[in-house]
Amino acid sequence: MPPATRASHSPASRPSPEAGSGLVARTVELTELTLVSDERGTFTVPLEGPGDAIPHELPEGAVVSLVMTFRLGADADGLVFETLRVGEGKDPVARRNLLGSFRAGGPYEIRLPPERLPLGRAHCGPYDVTARLSDAAGVEHARVRYRFSLGRAPERGRRRIGRP
């Protein structure tokens, strides 16, 4: 399994051919990615290094939003932020958010619409997420991989049959 967290940042200049990266010159630098949940607070996703040692835990049915901060070295048209969430034995879930066009500068902070995570024991377990920031031309400017674990929600207000 690949490392769960890895980010590619946007260098201001074109990478050298000696580096062998094959990346196109980019103008967007993702500086922070945060998961915000009413149930568990805020979790900043590591943009570099191994982040899969201890996945962030969220309760089933939690409502979460992603908040990203980025800077631009040049004007960027049609920025798009996509996520692909994959759990073992579960159908992948993809989300695509059109962010719009931005002038050079920043930092810009964008909070994506909230998403309710799946509910039920069948959905509990680890999930791998790949987040990607690209532009209208399809040029990828950042890619981040992280992991979270979905667990049983606390027994708040649930009534059990046969118990008072």
Put the structure in a nutshell.
This protein is mainly β.
Average predicted local confidence, pLDDT: 79
Biggest sheet overview: 5 strands, antiparallel
Report the radius of gyration as a whole number of Å.
18 Å
Span between termini = 46 Å
Q: Which parts are unreliable, with pLDDT below 50 for 5 consecutive residues or more?
A: 1-25
What helical percentage do the residues reach?
Answer: under 10%
Strand content: over 45%
Helix-and-strand structural type? mainly beta
Query: What is the N-to-C succession of helices and strands?
Result: EEEEEEEEEE
The total beta strand count reads 10
What general form does the structure show?
elongated
Number of helices: 0
Structural features, described:
This protein is an all-beta fold and 164 residues long. The strands form 2 sheets. Strands 1, 2, 4, 7 and 8 form a 5-stranded antiparallel β-sheet that branches. It has strands at residues 28-37, 41-44, 56-59, 63-72, 76-87, 93-102, 105-111, 115-116, 125-134, 140-151. It is built from no helices and 10 strands. The protein starts with 27 loop residues before the first strand and ends in a 13-residue tail after the last strand. 0% of the residues lie in helices and 49% in strands. It is elongated and about 50 Å long. Mean pLDDT is 79; it is low at 1-25. A hairpin with a 3-residue loop joins strand 1 and strand 2.
